[in-house]
Amino acid sequence: MAAERVTALGYEFANIDDAVLAQAEVKKIDYLKAHLDQGDADTVKALYDKAIDDNFFRSPVGMNFLSELREYMIDTLDFTEDEVRPVPIYLLYDGNSRKKSDAKKEEKKEKVGFLFVSVVLNIALVIAVIIMFWIATNTDQPNIINYETVLTDKYATWEQDLSTRESRVREAEKALKENGVIIETQETSENGD
């Protein structure tokens, strides 16, 4: 079955998308014609160069406008053939755009390179995070992960040491009382003075 062809603006297009593109370019052309001061040679040339540089027109309708604008600059605005760039046509005989295919190849290479760099950086970051967690969980120093446990253990050890010392002091006091040694407190020594 043959591909459906669409006719628009005096051109026959291979598909509806190309016809829609051509109609959009007609709107751009109408806008430019309505707002462009065609007597200002510098403005016309700047617009022409920008349209070529930005690939502003891609359909035959747009290319025809650029060709007419080029002829107008040479015939009416006194530019020479060398001063006005030729209208670029980037089509192969099979209808594909050279500029598009070259751009797609470059874009694909850039994506592959970007993807590789992205994967390598992600792996490096994951390894760094794993190492940081390992260090944080295996250190005795308090940190955001184990601060509560470390501080609780530290205070528990201090409390146990104080309890042990207090019980030893009480045992010593008890032994002294049993032996008859009088323990003077600071209050009795102050009263005796």
What is the topology?
Blueprint: E1 6-8, E2 11-13, H1 16-35, H2 41-53, H3 60-75, H4 98-137, H5 147-178, H6 186-192
Antiparallel strand pairs: 1-2
Helix pairs in contact: 1-3, 2-3
Brief summary of the model shown:
This protein has 193 residues and is mainly α. It has helices at 16-35, 41-53, 60-75, 98-137, 147-178, 186-192; strands spanning 6-8, 11-13.
Count of alpha and pi helical runs: 6
Overall geometry comes to rod-shaped
Terminal CA distance: 125 Å
- SSE series: EEHHHHHH
The assigned structural class equals mainly alpha
Task: Please estimate the helix content.
Answer: 55-70%
Pick out its properties.
2 strands; mainly alpha; 193 residues; 6 helices; rod-shaped; two-stranded antiparallel ribbon
